[in-house]
Amino acid sequence: MEDRSRLLGPLTAAAEKLGLPGIVPVMLSEGTNLIVHLAPHGVVARMAWAQSEADPEQARLIVRRELETARHLHVRGVPVLPPADAAVPAGAGPHEAGGVWLSLWAYLPPQQRSRPTPEQAVSLLRALTRGMRDFGGELPALGVWERVCRSAERLRGQTDPRIRQLVGRFAAADERMRETPGALAPCHGDAHAGNLLPAPDGWVWTDFEDVSLMPAYWDYASYVANLALFGGFEEPTLQYMLHLPDVAADRDAFGFALTARILMATVGNLDDALAGRGDLTFARRQLALAVEAVEAWERLADKMEGR
Predict the structure, then answer these.
(1) pLDDT tens digits for 159-174?
(2) Which single residue of 65, 131, 218, 228 could bond 214 by disulfide (Cβ 3.0 to 4.6 Å)?
(3) Which of 3.20.20, 2.60.40, 3.40.50, 3.30.200 would CATH assign to domain 4-106?
């Protein structure tokens, strides 16, 4: 992996111009976004280097959309990591440093918390869903899904029968995904537990780069997809969701979101891993389980509906 520390110099210089002097940058995470604490200030920079290299204008739009979404949710009392507008004289962004678009966010010192209970997870998801419902900003229809459609196209040339079966299942889900575009609603897009940060008084949502118009229950499914894939359908949070009155009344919609999310994660991670951009061992574990999990859900759904 290329060393992204070269971006710290331009970042520090840009931060000085934005009104944050005397910075000692501390890298917190180095993935497709570089996350840097601008110590000693209570501000974190999120540098969208991968998207900026691929398409700078699209990177700027995504960064702006992330900030707009987080601000919208924050003023509605949804627990989110807030943009650092109050701490930065020039605002939270979008800003540019060394050819990379970035945003600025509040810094949360590291904390230890137990994973959210099923009740806590659903409460967080309900707050997120309510807050997103009236978001008026422009969002891409099936945005997070469309990106993985390109991954599925690249995987079509694979000869492994498991991959061919996976791509076939994904294609069937894609057909259904496009049947009722009017039913899509604003969603976080990638609301798994890894996008919750521990805060002094609970958990906060972060990472809004995949906000999209998606089917019902998409964010719920995003939270439990890998938990169900690796832990089975008896996984406690999934079981708690299945007994919610609204989910119980529309298990077909929830089940579609869940299986589509499992397929999407598996296709995307496998494509990245085969291209040298991800964890191949993890992607192969997902591949070994994904199609079987989708089929197992279909059997379970039939049983629950008495079919």
Answers:
(1) 999 999 999 999 999 9
(2) 218
(3) 3.30.200
* Residue 30: strand pairing partners: 34
pTM above 0.85, yes or no: yes
With 70 as the cut, is the pLDDT of residue 306 above it?
A: no
Q: Average pLDDT of 73-97?
A: 97
At 265, the amino acid letter reads A
| Cβ atoms within 10 Å, residue 222 | 26
Question: Is the pLDDT at 145 greater than 60, yes or no?
Answer: yes
Q: Where are the domains of the chain?
A: 4-106, 118-304
Peptide bond into 40 cis (omega under 30): yes
Q: Is the pLDDT of residue 51 over 80?
A: yes
Can you read off the two tokens belonging to residue 174? 């894609």
Q: What is the SS3 assignment for 293?
A: helix
Partners of residue 263 on adjacent β-strands:
none
Q: Given 3.30.930.10, 3.40.50.300, 3.90.1200.10, 3.40.710.10, which CATH number is that of 118-304?
A: 3.90.1200.10
Beta bridge partners of 24: 39
Q: Do 277 and 301 touch, CB atoms closer than 8 A?
A: no
SS3 state of residue 289: helix
Residue in this structure with the two tokens 């943009």, named with its chain if needed: 83
The residues that bridge with 187 in the sheet, in sequence order, are 212
* Cα(138)–Cα(212) distance, integer angstroms: 9
Q: Which residues contact 163 (CB under 8 A, 6 or more apart)?
A: 155, 270, 287
